[in-house]
Amino acid sequence: MSAVHQFTVEVPWGVSHVRSGTCRSGPPTVLLHQTPRSGDEFREVIALLSADHHLLAIDLPGMGHSTGHPDGDTIAAYAAGVLATVNGLGVDRFLVAGHHTGAAVAAAVAAGAPRRISGVVLSSPPWIDAAAREARLTRAGPGVDEATPSEDGRHLTELWAGRAAFYPPGRPDLLTRFLADALLVEDPTAGHRAVTNWDMEPLLPVLRTLSVLLVDHADDPHAHPNITRWRAALPDAAVRTITDGMVPLEFTADAFADALRTVIGRRDPTVGGTAAD
Question: Which of 50, 73, 48, 45 is nearest to 61 (CA)?
Fold first, then answer.
């Protein structure tokens, strides 16, 4: 497998941390991770594809090793961080792909600058309409990745246990990678709140003008139920189902890499019409 290289890009409020592979030429594919992960989520994908494809896995603002955006934790601020990073790298057009929170950010990036987008990959995208937002805000019990810091470190076990049910059995290595990323952020739930407050629906008309691939992880209980809504909202989108796909994207990195291969390199940025930036 190819090596994964790491570097930082200066942005107006600090730095953005990026991972890439050996190929540094051609229009890149920008990879955006879930909350509270980092570009490490795409380590295997980069290793599988980057000998022939230019890949950039960006740590979202305030996660991984990227500086938080001055506007705080919102999907719009995360999207601004992504655009500032690609601008800093001198990138004009690119394919954008995201998983969970990263899918929301990918949608926001694409809708905000559609003329720069060669394609969009939404992997386990959250569906946030008024009903979904109300359900999230009124949900009883602790939310995803909620754990109150304690002197005896019990919160680390709580973070681990809260994710374990959504991870494959016998893979503590994947949970270890999650926990390592969760410890890099001040609040592991901040990105989840950003998704809850995301104004998604105004983006849909622009997304309909772009080439979109929906990646459905069939064993992902958070996102799989939403795929029918996304298919109805984006009727021209292609769909790829990963039958054993779960919350941790790296568990089925081979299948996700295969899905990316179907869209990397497409040149026509539109499907249904011409969108304005």
Answer: 73
